[in-house]
Design a protein that fits this description.
By secondary structure, the chain is of the alpha/beta class. The chain contains 8 helices and 6 strands, in the order βααβααβαβααββα. Strands 3-4-2-1-5-6 form a 6-stranded parallel sheet, sandwiched between helices. Helix 1 packs across helix 2.
Length: about 250
């Protein structure tokens, strides 16, 4: 059975977040260097971005490099940053009418990579079919710490008071303030955790875990995840009787 034809086009998740795990293990299983796994993973990014656009997903957020990943060997970090420069191809975004955005600690990113990201964001800013977001030098704990600092600064200047702080106040200071929370989070590679990724935003996100390594994750696997999502009832704390399944 092909899950492509089982998907309800009226219930496509508006925002899908993905933890792209398994590049290194994929390479190791094939007797290749870890960088080969990352290179193949880039090809998967292109395929899934195009398919998400075709299906009508509005936001696709990809966990590309965490703040903790800076602890990895220097040669692997250099290779990952080089892949971003080499494969951040604006024609893919322009062809599919996709806007490119980044969330994360821009200050830690090498200058050449930072400039390339800024250029791509600027040149695609008018595209409006889908927004593809990379979480680069990102972690939720870093994000929430930064949001807390921003709120504290506003209190110091009198722009905010303690009693006026709401959930929306926090939301407005997060890296993700420009988009809705994820409807569906997919993690490839067999691990059953979300690794400091969009912790605040995933309060009511549906999770989907699969064993497939990211380089082997294809359109059919993507369709399967969406089909699984569509089989669930999203209650957001209410009872079944109180909600109408979308």
């Amino acid at each position: 059975m092909s899950f492509k034809y089982e998907i309800n086009p009226e219930r496509i998740p508006e925002h899908i977040a993905i933890i792209m795990d398994g590049n290194g293990r994929w390479a190791k299983a094939k007797g290749l260097p870890r960088t080969a796994g990352h290179q193949q993973g880039v090809e998967t990014v292109k395929k899934i971005t195009e398919e998400a656009t075709r299906l009508g997903v509005k936001y696709l957020t990809l966990y590309t490099f965490s703040t903790e990943n800076w602890k990895r060997p220097a040669d692997e970090i250099a290779a990952l940053m080089g892949l971003i420069i080499d494969h951040l191809e604006e024609e893919i975004f322009m062809k599919n009418n996709v806007r490119f955005r980044m969330i994360g600690d821009m200050s830690r990113i090498p200058t050449q990579v930072r400039q390339r990201i800024i250029e791509c964001m600027e040149r695609t800013k008018e595209n409006n079919k889908m927004t593809m977001v990379i979480a680069l030098s990102y972690s939720s704990r870093w994000e929430l710490t930064e949001a807390t600092r921003k709120i504290a600064a506003k209190i110091q200047t009198g722009e905010l008071t303690l009693s006026s702080i709401t959930e929306e106040t926090v939301n407005s200071q997060l890296e993700t303030a420009f988009m809705p929370d994820p409807d569906l989070l997919i993690r490839t590679g067999g691990e059953l955790r979300i690794s400091n990724y969009l912790l605040w935003q995933c309060a009511y996100t549906e999770f989907y875990f699969c064993d497939t390594f990211w380089p082997d994750f294809n359109e059919e696997e993507f369709h399967k995840a969406i089909h699984d999502y569509q089989s669930r009832e999203r209650r957001f704390g209410k009872t079944s009787e109180q909600v109408t399944t979308k």
